[in-house]
Amino acid sequence: MKSKVAGIVFISGSLYYIIAESISATFFNDSLFNTYIFHTISELGIPNANSPLSLLMNSAFILIGLTLIFGYFYRFKDFIIKNRALCHIFALITAVGVIIVGLIHGGNPFTLGYHMLGAMMAILGGNVLLVIVSRSMEDFGFYQKLTLILGIFGLIAFWIMFFNMTSSYMPVFERLSVYTLIIWCFSTGIYIRGK
User: Fold this and answer.
1) What does the H/E/C string look like for the chain?
2) What average pLDDT score do residues 13-19 get?
3) Angle made by CA atoms 180, 121, 130, in degrees to the nearest 5
4) Is the pLDDT of residue 185 over 80?
5) For residue 1, pLDDT beyond 90
6) Average pLDDT of every residue of the chain
7) Is 153 exposed, middle or buried (0-12, 13-18, 19+ CB in 10 A)?
8) Stretch 78-93: mean pLDDT, rounded?
9) What is the dihedral of CA 117, 122, 123, 124, to 10 degrees?
């Protein structure tokens, strides 16, 4: 029963995030293509004329953070055999980080530092979490391999983004480094539903 509940939470939270971002991007003050390529996810959460559905985007940040906290500590932690404390810490860092992103938007210069800190916790912490989790479970089957690939891919995308912050295409690498966590939440929901 716990596996089914946690699985539904993981799947629902990840789908809500993808749908909320796509709707917010659709109503952003630019074409949908340009929004995904040239505008960061954080811009969708800034409450101004450019993003009339910023509340929706910020709710997605907060919900995916809560999804991770609940799903991980309610059921997924039971699958962690090694490095338990480290996995728990990075799960909390990631979840708290993405919740901070949703609560403190990037459009205020006085709070931008907190927003950036939350983003670093969520993106870097999240992909490190995936790498550690992949090597901390009982076996190393398809799910664990997928988790490892997602984590490594996300870390590569993060570092490309980090060293190209002034590039017009930086938002592409930001999204690539964020979507790894969303894909992992969805695949984890499927994985644990049958356990």
Assistant:
1) CHHHHHHHHHHHHHHHHHHHHHHHHHCCCCCHHHHHHHCCHHHHCCCCCCCCCHHHHHHHHHHHHHHHHHHHHHCHHHHECCCHHHHHHHHHHHHHHHHHHHHCCCCCCCCHHHHHHHHHHHHHHHHHHHHHHHCCECCCCHHHHHHHHHHHHHHHHHHHHHCCCCCCCHHHHHHHHHHHHHHHHHHHHHHHHCC
2) 98
3) 35
4) yes
5) no
6) 95
7) middle
8) 96
9) 70
| Residue linked to tokens 């979490």 | 129
Q: How many residues make up the chain in this entry?
A: 195
Spatial separation of the C-alpha atoms in residues 84 and 145, rounded to whole Å: 19
Per the listing, tokens 């999804």 go with 67
pLDDT tens digits, one per residue of 35-55: 999 999 999 999 998 999 999
Tell me the CB-side half-sphere exposure of residue 86, using CA atoms within 13 A. Answer: 13
pLDDT tens by residue, 113-152: 999 999 999 999 999 999 999 999 998 999 999 999 999 9
How big is the CA angle at 20 (ends 31 and 64), to the nearest 5 degrees? Answer: 135
